[in-house]
Design a protein that fits this description.
This protein is α+β, with helices and mostly antiparallel strands. The chain has one domain: Urate Oxidase. The protein has six helices and nine strands; from the N terminus they run ββααβββαβαβααββ. Helix 1 crosses helix 2. It is elongated, with a radius of gyration of 22 Å.
Amino acid sequence: MKDIQNQPDYRNIPIDKVGIKNLRYPIRVLDRQNGFQHTVASINMYVDLPHKNKGTHMSRFVEILHHLASPEISLKGIGDVLEQMKRHLNAASAHIEVTFPYFIAKKAPVSGSVGLLDYTCRFIGSSDPEGYVDLVSEVIVPISSVCPCSREISDVGAHNQRGEVRLSTRFKKFIWIEDMIALVESCSSCEVYSVLKRVDEKHVTECGYNNPKFVEDVVRDVAQKLKADSNITWFAVSAENFESIHNHSAYAYITDGTLPR
């Protein structure tokens, strides 16, 4: 059969990224407590396309995933996937983004009631024409925050809201997803839980009130801890509060460290 993708293209324009997006695929990721955790990822896979080629072979992206020795996805294993993409698609560079929900069983702070809380996680990898592989791990962590200004000026109470912290890191040695999440939660006014009894609700309300944080405070506290960790070579952290008294969000962002070559 005629292979249209391999036909020449005469517009003389290379494409930086071409491939597939939002492929839902079952994967297995490392879980510090249970060894592994099964989840479903949304995967984006791209390669570059030279100016002379009309198209790439889209089906090969899915075939590469299907022929993995196991469905396990890790930052270390992503490097192998990237090289397979370059080889099977005759590409100079390759890129992959794997986004998935990660579940942690959390105990309520007083009653000890257990519930699963989901965190959005992402592994991002790229391999350049020289074979250099860049890897980034990202977590999105729900938090609660109490406004320091509101608490200071109000006779009774203070406005509080749920927020979201996005933390991306590059590092020298492996770092657990759980550790990234715990670091972020420790910098919030109070953690978020899936199950709270009345005694727990009292605790988290008072905990947040006694630990007010602006979004500026949250990102600075996270950055301070990351700067003190010699394993972290680069990070980007943002905090967004879904304001309870405004029809807009509050936002802050910090990035620091050595970017890949």
